[in-house]
Amino acid sequence: MEALVDNSGVKRYLVTINVNGDDYTRIVKANTLLVNFIRDELDLTGTKKGCELGDCGSCTVLMDGKPVNSCIVLAVEADGHKFTTVEGVAQNENLDRLQESFVDNAAVQCGYCTPGMIMSAKALLTRNPQPTEEEVREAISGNLCRCTGYVNIVKAILAAASE
Amino acid sequence: MGEKYAVIGKSVPKIDGRAKVTGQAKYTGDLKLPNLLVGKILTSPHAHARIISIDTTEAEKLPGVKAVITHKDVPTLKYGISPARWDESIFCSDKVRFVGDKVAAVAALDDETVYKALKLIKVDYEVLPAVFDPEEAIKEGAPQIHDEYARNINTEIHQNFGDVDKAFAEAHHLRTDRFVGNRTYQCPIEPHSAISIWEGGKLTVYSSTQSPHYFQHYIAREFGLKMGDVRVIKTYVGGGFGGKLEPTGLEFAGAVLSKITGRPVKMFYDRHEMFAHNRGRHKQIMEITTSVDKNGKITGVYANFMMDGGAYTSLGIATAYYAGAMLPLTYEFVNFKFDMIRAYTNLPACGAQRGHGAPQPRYAFECHLDNVAADLGMDPIELRLINARQPNTVTPNDFAVNSCELTECITKAKEISGWVQKKGNLPSGKGIGIGVGSFVSGAGYPIYRTNLPHASAIIKVHEDGTAATLYTGATDIGQGSDTVLCQMAAEAMGFRYENMKIVAADTETTPHDFGAYASRQTLMSGSAVKQAGEEVKGQMLELASEMMEVEVSDLDCRDSIVFSLSDPEKAMPFGEVAREFFVRKGPLVGKGSYAPPKLGGTFKGAAVGTSPAYSFAAQISEVEIDEETGEIDVKDVWDVHDCGMVINPGLLHAQVHGALYMGMGESIWEQVLFDDKGKILNPNLGEYRMPTAMDMPRITSELVESYEPAGPWGVKEVGEGATIPTMGCYANAIYDAMGIRVNSLPLSYEKVWRALKEKKEKEKA
């Protein structure tokens, strides 16, 4: 990857990152985090920052279909990859069945972990459309929620899977 | 129209559900404003040190830095959420009192520049001896943290009701136990954030807050502004649990940075800084003595407590009083003595975490009571039933209890958990335990002295009658108050929930409310909303009477249809009447307000714990212990709550799940740890171990029939009550499984393992 050097000697890189089906070409620093790229450059603030250490899962996005913590992925690493954020889950006006199920099952309280939860659940149901409760719990074990005790989140994901 | 209520009592979807599942919901950190600067606070690396000098010249020279401020640039007026002790400053001027104390702040173009600038501020410190243990802190000769408070005593409580000495002297059985709690932190997933805009004489603050009103009050006070010139706007809030009740350096320093630069300034805490700001649960050291008669009836209780308050007061005076005040609420006894010292230490300040001061004393008391039951050879449930609080009673500390179905909660929990079959019959390593609790439904008195009503509401029906907007200062931090208050508004108006809109928690556009704490909003804000809705309905029916030529007394409105009670065929859509109202008389508006009756006694501290109503709960849990590792596996928890009439069952049970979850984390894993210099060892969500989806047991949440006369439609508390019994409930299940008593929180695997080892060694010897 070729670098441009600015006046103060800081290197910058040209990246093309596909988010929710669209290519975005931007100049980033070597230390630009994917989560900041998504939130600050693209203004997709549905992806949340909770810890910036990869502990809480609030910033979960799908990288080529797999869930990753976007706070521990660099924008330069994301170059050329395809990402889905929570804004890319609903199809126009229609909510995804997972999103509907979260609302119907009172699985949302403060809502801060919700986007990350939905992305982890989305990845699970894509690779395993009929998960067991144990598999659901494992799939969201990297997403911390402080409000729900996970009870209704697990219920919502299982309900979405059984549709 | 067979059902009693059209809107309440139903699990309608959350009003903000869609915005939250699509990522459209904007939290303070998501907001962008033109010309926005980023700000951060420089904090102390020492637990206790004198500030010799601060040099900001290098930081100011860094390109992109727009302002650097220290104590010289800000008001020196001390503040704190509790007027009982105002002991915090925007920035420290003489000395720092914990690792993380506020020293200076920077505003710059972006995050990276801010962090660089913070490193360029040179602070010269003279490090002082520090103290981290409350029992050490109050000894003569310990380092003095605040000059005004000798022996680091932040507050001292001595209460004595009835005659404990006599009860103890005449006791059939007397027992003393000592327990130690843990420092925990609320850990909302959303970090605190604030955007301040000081333009002309007006200060606007967008904030991640549980109480726009208290923020407005204290920000105005600090800067000498009129309340009307300070506007606090709550955005979506990503959880609070008590940690976002009071303004922080983010609001105070952000306001000054905005004033100096003339630009909006966004301030935020990262996860480490959140742990340092803290305001989480106090660690309490609890010695309890109880006397019982031969039937197991409690005749007297002496609670001798101490708590580690950290470096500042926060809401800790109230916490200290709550710790004792809630004890005689759950069980009935008339002789009660309570001594408490809240000590300052050189650690982050503690405040009000879900359940406030009550959960740790409840843990201690529930364990203690099981010990008493074992001494007497009684079943723990039998002992609890003998002593359980009854409806329409008064506690020794003058709390009037109206509705109380604690006996029914215990009985139902016993039934659904299979207690009778399981108790004493579970295989080795398995156990079953009970814990009960009770909590307030709103505080009887506000945090600072004022005669303002506690809650108020306005409902405005839209001109064409197709929608209505509720304006309320009530604060939804995720628990769902926006939803239940809209349900209550719709019910009172005879309107449809689906057509309700809400504008909430903005001090300029919404009427006053104290906000989200003390489990107050469903009862208090709900009362104001009900009154506002009824006022709309009254005006509607009066006009409809003219339009339909039916007596007002023969009219009602439900589901957005006005109809004659005697002839339901005679009906008119709500919208048609509302539109006509606007044409003839202008805006159709209803308003309401709520103030609790005068509550409580006259002794010192009598106000803390007063409430118009109290909730009660019983929890039973089944655990399995791995004898090799001490690992605790909670299999099942049954929670039975008495929370009065239920407005939204879906959201209500979700509150129980979440409260129990927090109690579970505090029971087994959660604890903020420090090194010997007062630095936090685990200020992150990897090492501060919150339960994950893999850790949670099966949870059964059930209710009992209950109606609270002091609440609108009979409602009372649910948000905090289910945190309170959990720690004792688990400890008692472990005791049942292994015959070991872990006398400190968290009930970690290591402690269980050590206790088992000790027990085995004793048995061998």
What's this model, at a glance?
Chain A is an alpha+beta fold and 163 residues long. Chain A is built from 6 helices and 6 strands, in the order E-E-E-H-E-E-H-E-H-H-H-H.
What is the second-level CATH architecture of the largest domain in chain B?
2-Layer Sandwich
Q: Give the number of DSSP strands of chain B.
A: 28
Number of domains of chain A: 2
Mean of the pLDDT scores of chain B? Answer: 97
Separation of the first and last Cα atoms of chain B? 73 Å
Q: Report the structural category of chain A.
A: alpha+beta
Q: Strand order within the widest sheet of chain B?
A: 3-5-1-12-9-10-11
**Biggest interface found:** A-B, 55 and 55 residues
- Tell me the name of the CATH class of the largest domain in chain B: Alpha Beta
Beta-strand fraction estimate of chain A: 15-25%
Content of β-strand of chain B:
15-25%
Total number of distinct structural domains of chain B:
3
How many H/I helical runs of chain A? 6
Question: Could you say which overall geometry of chain B the principal axes of the C-alpha atoms support?
Answer: globular
Helix count, DSSP H or I runs of 4 or more residues of chain B: 20
Instruction: Kindly report the CATH topology of the largest domain in chain A.
Output: Ubiquitin-like (UB roll)
Topology diagram in text:
The complex is a heterodimer of chains A (163) and B (765).
Chain A: E1 3-5, E2 11-19, E3 22-29, H1 34-41, E4 60-63, E5 66-69, H2 75-78, E6 82-84, H3 97-104, H4 114-127, H5 133-139, H6 151-162
Parallel strand pairs in A: 2-6
Antiparallel strand pairs in A: 1-2, 2-3, 4-5, 4-6
Helix pairs in contact in A: 3-6
Chain B: H1 17-21, E1 37-43, E2 49-55, H2 57-61, E3 65-69, E4 95-96, E5 102-108, H3 111-120, E6 122-127, H4 134-137, E7 153-161, H5 164-169, E8 173-180, E9 193-199, E10 202-207, H6 212-223, E11 230-234, H7 249-261, E12 265-268, H8 271-277, E13 283-292, E14 298-310, H9 316-325, H10 327-330, E15 336-344, H11 359-376, H12 380-387, E16 393-394, E17 400-401, H13 406-417, H14 419-422, E18 430-440, E19 455-461, E20 468-472, H15 481-493, E21 500-504, H16 524-548, E22 555-558, E23 561-564, E24 571-573, H17 574-585, E25 588-594, E26 614-625, E27 632-642, H18 649-668, E28 698-703, H19 726-738, H20 749-764
Parallel strand pairs in B: 1-12, 10-11, 14-15, 20-21, 27-28
Antiparallel strand pairs in B: 1-5, 2-4, 2-6, 3-5, 7-15, 8-13, 9-10, 9-12, 13-14, 16-17, 18-26, 19-20, 19-25, 22-23, 23-24, 26-27
